[in-house]
Design brief:
234 residues; alpha+beta; Trna Endonuclease, Chain: A, domain 1; 2 domains; six-stranded mixed β-sheet; 9 helices; 9 strands; elongated
């Protein structure tokens, strides 16, 4: 809504914005009430809305959507829901004990195969950035988590064509650094009714350091997450 008004350079009617955005009256009214309350937009006569200040979607607003998208992606790639657990581990307001920074999401999986002994145990971390922060710094943040995990990813909530058109230099550099360091890349297209995750680059799997990884999971996971993992040990 704020982007529409900003692009137009003038106040817009509710009717026009609902038509362009293809949203219902209820959704529009909820968004408009929020924008007016937070003083991003102003309601004027003739049901027109003007811009007071731009609205920037916070990074945290993408977490739930991306968690659901990654969950669906892992199922699509052959994991049963009973074989993995994913959790929002950002919790910016809480301190972490140990030498790590918190990844935004952490996924833990275990998988058995018919004719081999033992299990494949993975700890996968995800560093999420807003579309305007889809740059190479995210790769190095993701890399910092891999010291205690088996794979690390950067995730950007935009599609490949949009990213390439917005910042082609960063798009190339992110891909180059991901390949160089074995960091994975996932793009999540958020524009449709159902967000779609694209596995652009798969992360290189590192050998697990059980002691370091165990300490890491103890530090970042909730008690519910730890209980879920403990069920796999039985």
């Amino acid at each position: 809504m704020t982007l529409q008004i900003e692009s137009a350079g003038e106040a817009l009617t509710a009717t026009k914005m609902k038509r362009v955005l293809s949203i219902s009256d209820g959704v529009f009214e909820e968004a408009a009430d929020y924008g007016c309350t937070k003083k991003f937009i102003k309601w004027n006569t003739h049901n027109r809305y003007s811009l007071l200040k731009p609205f920037v979607v916070p990074e945290e607003a993408y977490y739930s959507l991306i968690l659901e998208s990654v969950d669906a992606l892992w199922v699509e790639e052959g994991y049963d829901k009973s074989q993995f657990y994913i959790e929002n581990t950002s919790r910016r307001d809480s301190k972490i004990e140990g030498p790590w920074t918190r990844p935004d999401l952490t996924l833990v999986s275990h998988k058995k195969f018919p004719w081999t002994i033992g299990t494949e145990f993975d700890v996968v971390t995800f560093e999420i950035k807003r579309p305007d922060s889809a740059n190479v710094l995210a790769v190095f943040e993701a890399l910092s988590h891999v010291s205690a995990a088996t794979r690390g990813y950067v995730v950007f909530p935009l599609d490949a064509d949009t990213w390439r058109s917005l910042n082609p230099a960063q798009e190339r550099r992110v891909r180059d650094e991901c390949i160089r360091h074995g960091v994975g890349l996932i793009l999540v297209q958020t524009g449709g009714v159902t967000p779609a995750a694209q596995h652009v680059l798969k992360a290189t799997r590192r050998e697990i350091d059980h002691e370091k990884c165990s300490d890491f999971l103890d530090a970042v996971l909730t008690d519910g997450g730890k209980r879920r993992i403990s069920q796999w040990k039985s």
